[in-house]
Automatic annotation (TrEMBL):
The lineage of its organism: Bacteria, Bacillati, Bacillota, Clostridia, Lachnospirales. GO terms for molecular function: 1,4-alpha-oligoglucan phosphorylase activity; thymidine phosphorylase activity. Homodimer. Residues 345-419 form the Pyrimidine nucleoside phosphorylase C-terminal domain. The keyword Transferase applies. Its EC number is 2.4.2.2. GO terms for biological process: pyrimidine nucleobase metabolic process; pyrimidine nucleoside metabolic process. Catalyzes phosphorolysis of the pyrimidine nucleosides uridine, thymidine and 2'-deoxyuridine with the formation of the corresponding pyrimidine base and ribose-1-phosphate. This is Pyrimidine-nucleoside phosphorylase. GO terms for cellular component: cytosol. SMART domains: PYNP_C.
Length: 434
C-alpha cells in the first residue's frame, strides 16, 4: 500500500477502505508520510467528503494511534460531556458536581481555550494549586471516592488528531463535517466512559453558525458514538449571546460557585439542568427526566452539589478556601463600567465579538503559547430582551490594563444593539439528537 494510490483514489471521489485509512493514519503518526502528501489528502477529503463508514474508520484509526483510558475499575455507569465551544460556558464546573452529587460518576478530560472560546482547564487553574495533570490511577481512584474527576488529556491520547489538526489549521481544511466529528469523537471515545452528552453550540459565538450545520454535526457525532457502542445524545444549544453573565476564567469560576449555591444566571442553570437530567437517565440512575430534574434540584437546595465542588478541588490539591470565599480568586486591578448611551431593549449581543473583547483583555489565547490573565474578563449586566435605561450599566470590564479596558469599552458599545423589543424570545435549547 502506498500513499500515492490513496491520494489518487480520494482525489477521484472514491471511498477509502478501513485498511487504507489505518495505513495513512499510522504511517503519518510515525512520521513516515510527509506533511505535503497528507495536506493534499486533507484537501481531497475536504472537497469530496467522506461517507459515514469512512468517518467511523477515521475516528477508530485516530483512537488507535495512541493510548486509551480504561475506566473499567470505576464503579457504576460513567458519564462524560463535551461542548463544541462557546463564550461564557462554565457548564462543566456546575454540571459535573450536580451529577456526581446524584450518585453518578462524572469523568472528563478537558482542553484549554483558544481564540474566543474558553477552556475548562484554564478556569480550574484559577483555583490556587488546582492540579489538572492526573495519572490514570489517580483519575480512577478519585472518581471511585467522590464520583468526579476533571483533568487534562495525556499527550499520548489521539496523537494522530493533534498532527492532523495542526495541518488542517494551516491548509483551510478545518471546516469539514467528517474531519470535525472524527476529531471531537476520537478524543471522547479514547476515554472509555459509558455515556456521552454532546452540547453542540450554534450561533454567532459558536463554530457552527447555522442550525443546519449544527444539526448535521450533531447527527454525525451521535452516529459515531453509537457505532462505537457508546450511549450518545446531542443537544443543540443557542450561542448567539454568551451563556450566563461572566466571560473570563476566574469570573466564570465565581459564577459557577454562585450557581451551585442556587444564585446563578437562569440560562446557565437551565442548560445544566437539561444536560444533567439526560445524563442521569443515560446512567440509569432514574427512569425519566422529570425524576432526574427533581434529584438535580435537590442537589442544589441541599448543598450537596456545592460540597461536591469542594471535594473535587480538595482531591485535586486545590485551595478549597476560594470556594467558600470566591473573593480569593484572581482579581483584576481595574473594573470599568460600560454605560448605555441609549434607552431601549437589548436586541442582540454578538457572542463571538464579546469573546474577542475578552481575548483582547488577556482572558483567552491567540495561540497555544499565549499567556493568560486569569483575572481578566467581562461580566454582562444586561442580556438580550432586557430593557436598559440611558446611563445604565451594560457590562463590567475586569482588566489589569486600563488603556486596553477603555478600548474594549468602546467595542462593547458597538456590540450591544439596542432598539425595539424583539418579536419572540431567544430559545436556549434548540434540538435534541438521538
Amino acid at each position: 500500500m502506498v500513499i500515492y494510490d490513496i491520494l489518487k483514489k480520494k482525489r477521484d471521489g472514491l471511498p477509502l477502505s478501513e485498511d487504507e485509512i489505518n495505513y495513512f493514519i499510522n504511517e503519518y503518526t510515525m512520521g513516515k508520510i510527509p506533511d505535503y502528501q497528507i495536506s493534499a489528502l486533507l484537501m481531497a477529503i475536504f472537497i469530496n467528503k467522506m461517507n459515514d463508514q469512512e468517518t467511523l474508520y477515521l475516528t477508530k484509526a485516530m483512537i488507535n494511534s495512541g493510548e486509551t483510558v480504561n475506566l473499567d475499575n470505576i464503579d457504576g455507569i460513567k458519564v462524560d460531556k463535551h461542548s463544541t465551544g462557546g463564550v461564557g460556558d462554565s457548564t462543566t464546573l456546575i454540571l459535573g458536581p450536580m451529577v456526581a452529587a446524584c450518585g453518578v460518576p462524572f469523568v472528563k478530560m478537558s482542553g484549554r481555550g483558544l481564540g474566543h472560546t474558553g477552556g475548562t482547564l484554564d478556569k480550574l487553574e484559577s483555583i490556587k494549586n488546582f492540579r489538572v495533570n492526573l495519572s490514570t490511577d489517580k483519575f480512577v481512584n478519585n472518581t471511585n471516592d467522590i464520583n468526579i474527576s476533571i483533568c487534562s488529556q495525556t499527550a499520548n491520547i489521539t496523537p494522530a488528531d493533534k498532527k492532523l489538526y495542526a495541518l488542517r489549521d494551516v491548509t483551510a481544511t478545518v471546516d469539514n463535517l467528517s474531519l470535525i466529528a472524527s476529531s471531537i469523537m476520537s478524543k471522547k471515545l479514547a476515554i472509555k466512559s459509558d455515556a456521552i452528552i454532546l452540547d453542540v453550540k450554534v450561533g454567532s459565538g459558536a463554530f457552527m453558525k447555522t442550525y443546519d450545520e449544527a444539526k448535521k454535526l450533531a447527527h454525525e457525532m451521535v452516529k459515531i458514538g453509537k457505532n462505537y457502542g457508546r450511549e450518545t445524545v446531542a443537544i443543540v444549544t443557542n450561542m448567539d449571546q454568551p451563556l450566563g453573565n461572566a466571560i473570563g476564567n476566574s469570573l466564570e469560576v465565581k459564577e459557577a460557585i454562585e450557581t451551585l449555591k442556587g444564585n446563578g444566571p437562569k440560562d446557565l442553570f437551565q442548560l445544566c439542568l437539561v444536560l444533567g437530567a439526560k445524563l442521569l437517565v443515560l446512567a440509569k440512575r432514574v427512569k425519566n427526566e422529570q425524576e432526574a430534574e427533581r434529584l438535580l434540584l435537590n442537589s442544589i437546595e441541599s448543598g450537596k452539589a456545592y460540597n461536591k465542588l469542594i471535594e473535587l478541588v480538595k482531591y485535586q490539591d486545590g485551595d478549597t478556601s476560594v470556594i467558600d470565599n470566591p473573593d480569593l480568586l484572581p482579581k483584576a486591578s481595574h473594573i470599568i463600567e460600560v454605560k448605555s448611551k441609549n434607552k431601549g431593549y437589548i436586541k442582540s449581543i454578538n457572542a463571538e465579538e464579546i469573546g474577542r473583547c475578552a481575548l483582547a483583555l488577556g482572558a483567552g489565547r491567540e495561540t497555544m503559547d499565549s499567556e493568560l490573565d486569569l483575572s481578566a474578563g467581562i461580566v454582562l449586566n444586561k442580556k438580550v430582551d432586557e430593557f436598559v435605561e440611558e446611563g445604565e450599566t451594560l457590562t463590567y470590564i475586569h482588566t489589569n490594563d486600563i488603556n486596553k479596558g477603555k478600548e474594549v469599552a468602546e467595542m462593547i458599545l458597538d456590540i450591544y444593539k439596542i432598539g425595539e423589543k424583539n418579536h419572540g424570545s431567544q430559545q436556549l435549547i434548540i434540538d435534541e439528537i438521538h
